[in-house]
Amino acid sequence: MPATYTKEDTIADAEAVKRAYKPTHPGFFEVVYAEGSFNSQLVASKDYKKDEVIAVVEGTTPGPKKYTSVQVSRDLHIELNSDLVFLNHSCDPSVSLDTDKMLLIANRDIKKGGPLTFFYPSSEWEMDQSFPCWCGAEKCCRSIQGAKYLSTEIMDRYYVASHIRELLNERGPEAAVPPPQSSA
């Protein structure tokens, strides 16, 4: 695994990127590159059963909070330095990214080629870059800004990292912070 691993957010030539691609976890999952902005995804390279450990998360490095980082404690973010950086968000996630045990775990049975997605607020208190969610899940949150902006009732639907659970407990059950208003 490389010491640093970068994610291009915009791909102009997906075929060239595919030719140069060397998977970090061959046989477990791979990146499917697509042209455009934030269109690539991580997919399963084989079938997984619910609760199966898909991968041990290792080779990470501490880094600043940014769109590619994952929050692992109240004030520490890491870079995944692997294909895991392509785990996209879903409000109906196929996996949990357990940042306490550093494991990627199947939330349900996943077929080969199926997308690997996790619920970003499960580890992020306040996102570096919020975004509108178009995942299409029945209970889609519509706007992904971090756990700080979601009710405890919503957060209780998901696996939640211990640092996020602590912050939720400290703020109280219904004290979700209103999202920042854009000044237009």
Give an account of the 3D structure.
This is SET domain-containing protein. InterPro entries: Flavunoidine_N-MTase (IPR053201), SET_dom (IPR001214), SET_dom_sf (IPR046341). Helix content is 11%, strand content 24%. With 184 residues, the chain is α+β, with helices and mostly antiparallel strands. The protein has a single domain, classed as SET domain (Beta-clip-like). The strands form six sheets. The protein has a three-stranded antiparallel sheet with strand order 5-11-10, with no helix packed on it. Strands 6-8-7 form a three-stranded antiparallel sheet. The N terminus is likely disordered.
Summarize the structure.
This protein is of the alpha+beta class.
Descriptive labels:
alpha+beta, Beta-clip-like, three-stranded antiparallel sheet, 3 helices, disordered N terminus
